[in-house]
Amino acid sequence: MKFKLELLNKIMPTVLYISGWRLFFYSNEGAEPIHIHAQKGDMECKFWVFVEKVDIKEAFSYNLSTTGRKEIRKLIFKNFDLIIDSWNTYFNK
Prior knowledge:
It comes from Algoriphagus aquimarinus. The chain is α+β, with helices and mostly antiparallel strands and 93 residues long.
């Protein structure tokens, strides 16, 4: 089990687990603009992160409820700097 988790974190590095959400990115996405994926239960989404504007924009979602959307947006804004720092550190930006 530990091996599977380590492999998963290499392919999809996890930035944060919070309130049942897993915030992560894929290890092959460094050429794309900064963004974050989030998953909780059967809800999934991706948000673009605009550093200069301190803003985010939903790129896609699957089974994301209105409540889930509000919750994940708040969590992304609350952890905005951590997401950016994690992206830049992982992709050596």
